Amino acid sequence: MSGKEVKQLYHVYSARWYDAVKRLWNWLVVEQAEKELHDFLAKNVDDNKTVLELGCGTAANLEAMRSLGIQFKEYRGLDFSKDMLHAQKCRQTFLCRV
Ligand SMILES: C[S@@+](CC[C@H](N)C(=O)[O-])C[C@H]1O[C@@H](n2cnc3c(N)ncnc32)[C@H](O)[C@@H]1O
Fold first, then answer.
1. What is the pLDDT along the chain (98 residues), one digit of tens a residue?
2. Are 1 and 55 in contact (CB under 8 A)?
3. Does 77 sit in the ligand 1 pocket, CB within 6 Å?
4. CA 53 to ligand 1: nearest atom
5. Whose CA is nearest to atom 1 of ligand 1?
6. Does ligand 1 lie within 6 Å of residue 79's CB atom?
7. Shortest CA distance to 60 belongs to which of 96, 94, 85?
8. How many domains does the chain have?
C-alpha cells in the first residue's frame, strides 16, 4: 500500500471513527495483545522516559497510558495523516504540530 493510499484510508471519515472502532476491535480481536502492550509500557516507561510513537494516529496509546496512570517525561507522536492527528483529542495537544 502506498503512502497516498494509507493517507486516504485514514482520511477524515475514518479518523473520526477510529477510536471507537479500535475499542471494539481490541475487545473482540486483540484484547491479549493490547494487554501485553499496556504491561510492556507499565514496566518500561517512567517519569524519566520520553515515548516516541511512530504512526501515533489519534494518540489512543497516549490516552491509554494516561488512563492507566503510567508516568512519562514526554510523549511525542509522529504520523503523516493530518486527519488522524487532528481527530478528537489531538486538537488539544502539541501533536497538532505536523
Ligand atoms: C492502525 S493506525 C495506529 C494508530 C496508533 N498507533 C494506535 O495504536 O491507535 C496506523 C497509523 O500509522 C500511520 N502511518 C502509516 N504509515 C506511516 C508512515 N510511513 N509515516 C507516518 N505515519 C504512518 C497512519 O496514518 C495511521 O494513523
1. 898 888 888 887 788 888 888 889 888 889 898 899 999 999 999 999 999 999 998 888 998 999 999 999 999 989 988 888 887 565 555 544 44
2. no
3. no
4. 6
5. 57
6. yes
7. 85
8. 1
| Residue whose C-alpha is closest to residue 42's, from 18, 72, 21, 12 | 72
Predicted TM-score (pTM) of this structure:
0.83
Q: How far, in Å, CA of 54 to CA of 41, rounded?
A: 15
Structural domain of residue 59, as residue ranges?
Answer: 3-96
How many angstroms separate the alpha carbon of residue 54 from the centre of ligand 1?
7
Q: Is the CB of 80 under 6 A from ligand 1?
A: yes
CATH of the domain at 72: 3.40.50.150
